[in-house]
Amino acid sequence: xxxxxxxxxPAVFCLVLAALTPLxxxxxxxxxYVRGNSFGILFAYSNDSSHILFxxxxxxxxxSIGVSYSRRLIAGRIVNFQxxxxxxxxxxxxxxxxxxxxxxxxxxxxxxxxxxxxxxxxCSPFVNEYNxxxxxxxxxxxxxxxxxxxxxxxxxxxxxxxxxxxxxxxHKVQLLIxxxxxxxxxxxxxxxxxxxxxxxxxxxGMGFEYFRTPRQSVRVxxxxxxxxxxxxxxxxxxxxxxxFQVAYVFGR
Length: 252
Hints:
Layout (H helix, E strand, L loop, with lengths): L1 H10 L1 H8 L16 E10 L14 E15 L3 E28 L3 E8 L8 E9 L2 E17 L1 E13 L5 E18 L5 E16 L4 E13 L10 E13 L1
Antiparallel strand pairs: 1-2, 1-11, 2-3, 3-4, 3-6, 3-7, 5-6, 7-8, 8-9, 9-10, 10-11
């Protein structure tokens, strides 16, 4: 996961930048849609996960509710450069559970199904043929493991290292790109039992911000979102999600 941390470390730079950079001077009227400080209420959701860049875990869902804070750093006619942080007191992650279907051929024939087993990393069917002997009795058959059912895990997340760029700040509709780095704590290990409950997060995406007034706006984004324990646990499969996020933002 060295490549993941190479993305995460530069994001910390924005913390220093936000502390050392004063608010830019007031903008003239053509740049009316630029706020000094703004706060947001956000909702984010992802219905699936796959191997986008680093993560290996499949069929993981994310649902988050939280708040954001943005501070203007540098604003011009082309770009409004901002520090942006997010706090997610509700950060839910969902893992698919595992079904085991055992078809036994010896010493007796039968099919046995067990649901609710621990999550697998990937949901492609895993087939295990077995044949062994105990006390002169031969046991043989086939075990097939598939994803079936689902469980949600409660967590909390904070992303204090974030940057946002709004383009053409004189317009009511502005294209934006952003990126964040932070951490997430879950009430149990995710995405598998041998992974960790403490993880690092990184995201990057783009979208648009529609200003209803100079002080109020709606922000809509699509993000690449990654969760990783950075090899601090026994396994580190990682989770890659395509995240949709919407936020109501206000400030002055």
